[in-house]
Amino acid sequence: VELDRATALRDDPARVAELLDAPAATAVVAGSDGVLIDRADDPALVRRAVADAGLPVFNGTEPILLGVDGDSAVFAVDLDDLDPAARAALLAEGRIATLRDAGAVLSAPEAGLAAYLTALLNWHRRHRFCANCGTRTEIEQAGYSRRCPNCHAVHFPRTDPVVIMLVEADGRLLLGRRPGWPKRRYSVLAGFVAPGETVEQAVVREVREESGIEARSPRYVASQPWPFPSSLMLGFAARSEGGEPRARDGELEDVRWFTLKEVRAAQNEAGELLLPPSISIARFLIDGWLDRAGD
Ligand SMILES: [Zn+2]
After folding, report:
1. Ligand 1 centroid vs 157 CA: distance in angstroms?
2. Where are the beta strands (DSSP E) in 124-229?
3. Could you tell me the CA-to-CA distances from 275 to 187, 242, 285, 287, 293 in Å, in that order?
4. Distance 43 CA to ligand 1 centre (A)
């Protein structure tokens, strides 16, 4: 089940306090190096009862409410804020997994919760001070905003839009590789949306900047939260008349067209090409292209 983010009751501190005091209240745990998962064969996020003595909620002031799951409210605990003893006690209950590792072993709903937990705590960690006047801000709406006590600016969790796009020309796919990637790994191109730009414009601009190829008719396909630290990947499929791609802006070390046959072989883990891992939206876009292309 997807967590109800309980947007309506966040503005009512009495309701939030009630949820926090209820025996069913639980907390999930993460630090800047990953999320806390249990050691079961089929792992899940470690859930601790909030009623357990000494389980600290974020900053010790306002709790961070993730949402409500049936009768149980789910709160977030940041390991980075704990004293060493409290931290060690929690760590003893499981192991820390990076979000990438967690995504590979958790069920889809648990992986979604892990991404949400990570994104929200990343934002709080990086936005403790007012961007307008520099004063330390205070958590409001049970973790969904921060208010500046000096200039009264309200700050909301930010999400940075990134476009990631499949570009196809005449049955071939445009893929590039960044320096430092595993050998033979190529993926679809991606880049941040610039201020004042539509996502469709960002697709065309990024493809041009990274490869010199002209893309057209971008069509939205799907999205994926990517809290590294706060991106949202917006997946597109676009077409092109082709041309000779060239790595231009220094972000890619190589970019080229791959034939259906080459990409199909890579999907079957054969051939020279290595595709991105299955949990990524990049791979989702590539697999979708192969499905549509048939044999
Ligand atoms: Zn301020």
Report:
1. 16
2. 138-140, 145-147, 154-155, 160-169, 172-177, 189-192, 215-226
3. 6, 21, 11, 10, 17
4. 42
And the tokens for 16? 């939030």
Contact 87, 79 (CB under 8 A): yes
Q: What is the token pair recorded at 295? A: 């044999």
Check if the beta carbon of residue 125 is closer than 8 Å to that of residue 80: yes
Q: What is the largest CA-CA distance in the chain?
A: 65
Measured in Å, how far apart are the chain's first and last C-alpha atoms? 36
Spatial distance between the Cα atoms of 39 and 74, rounded to a whole number of angstroms: 21
Residue found under tokens 């065309």: 204
Q: What is the pTM of this model?
A: 0.86
Helix axes 260-267, 281-293, angle to 10 degrees: 120
Take residue 171 and report the two structure tokens written for it. Answer: 């049955």
Cα 145 to middle of ligand 1, angstroms: 13
Cα 134 to averaged position of ligand 1 atoms, centre (Å):
6
CA angle 206, 209, 215 (to 5 degrees): 60
pLDDT in tens, 30-84: 999 999 999 999 999 999 988 775 666 655 567 899 999 888 899 999 999 888 9
Query: How remote is the CA of residue 136 from the centroid of ligand 1, in Å?
Result: 8
Rounded-to-integer distance, Cα 254 and Cα 177, Å: 6
Residue 155 CA to ligand 1 center (angstroms) comes to: 9
Name the β-bridge partners of 235. Answer: 164, 222
